[in-house]
Design brief:
Number of helices: 10
Order of helices and strands: HHHHHHHHHH
Strand content: under 5%
Number of strands: 0
Radius of gyration: 19 Å
Oligomer: single chain
């Protein structure tokens, strides 16, 4: 339930899209707590030396994780608000993580740890951007419809491109690196074709959904701007901090990967 895995995760899109922006930043982290519980308890209680309990639930979690990716990908196309789109992408990342850790592979778990950090920063960034964009579009808010032009369209547009590219897993950003680590770690694992297909298709769906959202918000605009104030410096600082974290995770991918690999090895031991 906490990791928002189908069929127990349908609460997430509505709850996250309705919450205030600062709360959703915390929620982007809290969803990963469910994945952490699966990984931590699974490595201790259901490890390879635990007799009849060894690998308990791994096959089911793999299937449910893949199904969650599919449901979230379809939901991202059906989202009518930018906040709802961000919520479905958080659900997609949770499905990716649960499917990855269910393999039990040390290399895959290392990739999942790196991807968990990436998806937390990227998801929180999208939620704050949805709130900031909504404030500058008047009554339309963050709805994915034609609305008034945004005052700070260059700044918010560049930040949106960064957040969207990272979230969708496009190179050279951290999302691409994390997915590549996971895919490499699953080589030789039974059912790898299903996981590869789900992750690649989910990334494609996310890319198209984010591109469509960006075009409707920044390009298909009316002639009259809304009477909206510019971004508060504190809000801009929070957005810039999350963007910087995502960029730093890309620039310092090598030490982050080593840390994730050491953590995965410790869990396996």
């Amino acid at each position: 339930i906490k990791a928002a895995i189908v069929p127990l995760g349908y609460w997430l899109p509505g709850a996250y899209a309705a919450a205030p922006a600062p709360a959703t930043v915390l929620f982007a982290l809290m969803t990963k707590v469910g994945v952490y519980a699966v990984l931590r308890v699974g490595s201790v209680a259901f490890g390879p030396e635990d007799g009849a309990l060894a690998g308990l639930g791994q096959a089911a979690l793999l299937v449910l994780g893949i199904v969650t990716i599919g449901v979230a990908a379809i939901g991202s196309w059906a989202a009518r608000r930018l906040g709802s789109l961000a919520a479905f992408l958080v659900m997609l990342s949770a499905g990716t993580l649960v499917a990855s850790v269910s393999t039990g592979s040390v290399a895959t778990v290392a990739g999942a740890i790196y991807y968990a950090a990436h998806s937390t920063f990227a998801g929180a960034l999208l939620f704050l951007l949805a709130d900031a964009i909504g404030h500058q579009r008047g009554e339309v808010a963050d709805a994915l419809v034609t609305g008034p032009p945004i005052q700070q369209k260059v700044l918010l547009g560049l930040l949106f491109v960064l957040g969207a590219a990272a979230t969708a897993g496009l190179p050279p950003f951290s999302g691409f690196i994390g997915k590549l680590m996971i895919l490499q770690g699953t080589l030789g694992f039974p059912g790898v074709r299903w996981l590869w297909g789900a992750m690649l298709a989910g990334g494609l769906f996310a890319t198209v959904a984010l591109a469509r959202a960006g075009s409707r918000i920044f390009w298909k605009v009316g002639a009259t701007p809304a009477a909206a104030a510019r971004l508060d410096p504190r809000e801009l600082a929070a957005i810039a901090l999350l963007a910087a974290c995502s960029v730093a995770l890309t620039l310092f991918a090598a030490p982050a990967q080593r840390y994730a690999a050491a953590t995965a090895a410790q869990l396996a031991a």
